[in-house]
Amino acid sequence: MNHKLQESMSLAKPDAKDLTRKQKISFFIGVLGLFILVLALLNIHLPNQGLVLSLALGFIAVSIILFSNNAYLNKSKGIKNDGVWFKSISSRGVLGWATGIILTSFYIVLYFFPQLLGLGKNGAPNTGLISLFDPLSNLLSGRPASQWFVYGSLYTIAILFFGYKFILKYRHNRYQQLRTGSVMFFQLGFAFLIPEFLYRMNSNLPYYDLKSIWPLNYYIFDEWSVKGFLSNGNLGLALIVFGILSIFVITPILTYKFGKRWYCSWVCGCGGLAETAGDPFRQLSSKKLSAWKLERWLIHTVLVFSVVMTIAMVYTYLGYDSNKFWLTRNLFIRLVIGFLTLLFLAVMAFKRKELGKDAKYGAIGYFAVIALLLVMHFTGTTNEVFFIKGSALRSAYGLFIGSIFSGVIGTGFYPILGNRVWCRFGCPMAAILGFQQRLFSKFRITTNGGQCISCGNCSTYCEMGIDVRSYAQKGQNIVRSSCVGCGVCSAVCPRGVLKLENGSLKGRINSNDILLGNNVNLIDLLKR
């Protein structure tokens, strides 16, 4: 019991709530499960690895379930985001920084030093932590585990059981329950089980996560991947055709109907981890104007880099002789530039007014891509593009974007910068979907400004750093490229001011003038 003198006049308790006895017990059970994994990591021999792995993962799962039940089922339904700024782990305290350092260290080891996890090289058997997952990997795909299988297993466990915690926390909101169930389903089935079963069916097929769309799936157009798909009959051809249709047909249609939320908040594994395991850190996203400016420049720079690198990857393994293959380098670069030009002209012709100042930045991005492609084409050789070997160029994107940004920074920095660092500042898929959402999606968040009490819950818990309250106070619809439609702003609003809707494109983007001091000229309003 806390006997400290309470000097605060607040009606709410100013201190973080202590853990209950049941929560402490459940926490100890989880630590026991992690301790088993640490023993394996230290290469301590553990007999009957299948049973030991089951115990470790079971302890972790039971720990999360028991902790969540005690934290939320003993309370009434409704907003339970109280106390987050008084907890060390969720307010950049010592525990928060320690967690960030541990996560970041894990990702660095995972991506760059897998041998420290026990990965066997040149056919040698696995040891350490990776060997502990061998029984599960052999059960699903018939092969020993890799560092990626270990990561995928832990990733899936985190989404499933922290997803359970999230469902209990927001059990007053059906939308949150449905979308959390969706990301749990897609992670377990599409990202984890189906790729393992596909390998058991045909071990020559390249790894393919069906819900991972280019440019997130940056390796789908690499030479080894394309050859792997095309050399494996109808199934391989169907997978690569599905990947192409996902980019140019499925994604635009679904974004038109539902906004980018259909992917970022209902399907994507990165978003799934951010929404479940990363939920305690959503309030840490910066709402500063400087952060918004950095976000817009950085994410679109990554998009330009992704587009150029993907085109360069394909370009490196095409030839000049049309007799060998109809798609030559010259034809390919013409088709790409033609497509990008038509897209740019269409946007400028029909959506220039809606984009406003952003049209200028879009033009800069277009001309930057075209300039880079022309430089690549006229300076490229058989083995080099941009004066760099093709093999080195193909690995650059995977290293800097796929590993360092999305993994080490994107997830490792959850407790420091918020749970959507990657989605907000780096994900090229989010940039493409955001562009589509801004231009032609039916999705918007409508606001009832008359009901807003300016409590600020919506802005505080917006993981994408949007100042939602400023829109709500003016009664404006929220149509932002960065909005992932998670709906938490609506879920934490005590007055029901915010509503996620799919409606007509007419009147979707509005700008209602409100009287704030001398900001509005009354004469101008009377003239309308």
Describe the structure using short key phrases.
two-stranded antiparallel sheet, globular, 4 strands
Structure overview:
This protein is an all-alpha fold. 59% of the residues lie in helices and 3% in strands. The chain is built from 22 helices and four strands. It has helices spanning 21-41, 49-72, 94-112, 128-132, 134-140, 147-169, 174-201, 223-230, 233-258, 261-264, 269-276, 289-316, 329-355, 358-379, 390-409, 414-417, 421-425, 428-440, 457-460, 468-474, 488-491, 522-526, and strands at 384-385, 388-389, 443-447, 498-502. Strands 1-2 form a two-stranded antiparallel ribbon. Strands 3-4 form a two-stranded antiparallel ribbon. Strand 1 (384-385) and strand 2 form a beta hairpin. The longest helix has 28 residues, at 174-201. Mean pLDDT is 85; it is low at 513-519.
**Percentage of residues assigned to helices:** 55-70%
Enumerate the spans where pLDDT stays under 50 for 5 or more consecutive residues: 513-519
What assembly state would you assign to the polypeptide chains in this entry? single chain
> Strand arrangement, largest sheet?
1-2
Gyration radius from CA atoms, angstroms: 25 Å
Our measurement of the CA-to-CA distance between the termini, rounded to an integer number of angstroms, reads: 64 Å
| Rounded average pLDDT | 85
Structural class: mainly alpha
Morphology call: globular
Strand portion: under 5%
- SSE run: HHHHHHHHHHHHHHEEHHHHEHHHEH
Largest sheet features: 2 strands, antiparallel
Number of helices: 22
